[in-house]
Amino acid sequence: MRRAVLLAGLCAATLAGAAEIRPTRDYLSPELRAQQQDPSRHPGWLWVDEGEALWRRGETSCQSCHGDIARMAGVAARYPAVASDGALLNLEGRIERCRTQHQGQPAFGYESDELLALTAAIALRSRGMPMSVAVDGPAAPFLEAGRRLYETRQGQLNLACGQCHDDNAGRRLRGDVISNGLGTGYPAYRLEWNGMGSLHRRLRACSLGVRATQFDLGSPEYLALELFLADRARGLPVEAPGLRR
Ligand code: HEC
Ligand code: HEC
Fold first, then answer.
1. Which one of 65, 68, 90 would you pick to mutate in the ligand 1 pocket, going by the greatest count of ligand atoms within 8 A of its CB?
2. Full-prediction pTM beyond 0.90?
3. Domains by residue range for the chain, with CATH
4. How far apart are the CA of 67 and the centre of ligand 1, in A?
């Protein structure tokens, strides 16, 4: 029943054409938007604080190589990026590499509080800066893979990402206002999760929403999609850590 209603609502606005892509904060309620900007009312700051502590922890700390975390300014705006060995890394993947290869420690693990904390603390240093990922050279095939995934109809509902996030942005769906589906606010604290979560966790929720295959956290599919979303957001501000209902 609800599916029929959902589809009827969405079909009315398909083929509306490529509308303007707006910063995600424009789609938040005024209350949530204000709270996202205010560390004293943003529960995600518990992770930021933890991330800053982790940055300094241990003998071979992140800080021992990189200096003050303030020097990470602008980094999140450039990720995902292709590493020297040709792998596409998002910020989480880059941190895990430093953890294992430079610190000689076991990986934190995707979606662990430690990795979310470090990712949030580093991303915060780019807050307000314009997204500017590289998509040429070795990144080009990843961008194309991401674009294909974005444009392909998926799942039992047979919907492509853009049928919600382009054609129906600004409309309500199950109590949410549909945004342009950018990754700029992640990791984000989501009240429904009662905690911090990664972009890939959110993507899994969208895949489930259309009854499509949910790829693994950190999978090549979601990494390519993340690069495509970052390119879509080119010039728009990093908003992480976001706050969501
Ligand atoms: C022993 C030195 C060392 C330690 C310790 C280290 N890193 Fe790195 N990090 C590097 C180097 C070198 C690079 C450049 C890429 C490479 O060659 O691996 C890098 C790159 C990065 C980048 C990407 C920067 C950019 O401009 O693209 C991030 C983010 C990062 N490290 C985070 C961390 C975090 C978080 C920790 C702690 C968990 C950490 N690093 C620990 C040496 C280190
Ligand atoms: C049936 C409609 C629908 C489809 C199809 C859909 N999403 Fe979503 N998506 C939503 C809703 C609703 C939300 C929550 C409100 C919002 O932030 O847009 C959301 C949230 C998101 C967010 C988080 C935005 C934020 O800042 O919190 C991203 C990123 C996203 N979607 C990407 C995708 C991608 C990529 C696909 C295709 C694989 C996709 N979505 C497919 C409905 C959809």
1. 65
2. yes
3. 19-38+131-244 (1.10.760.10), 39-124 (1.10.760.10)
4. 10
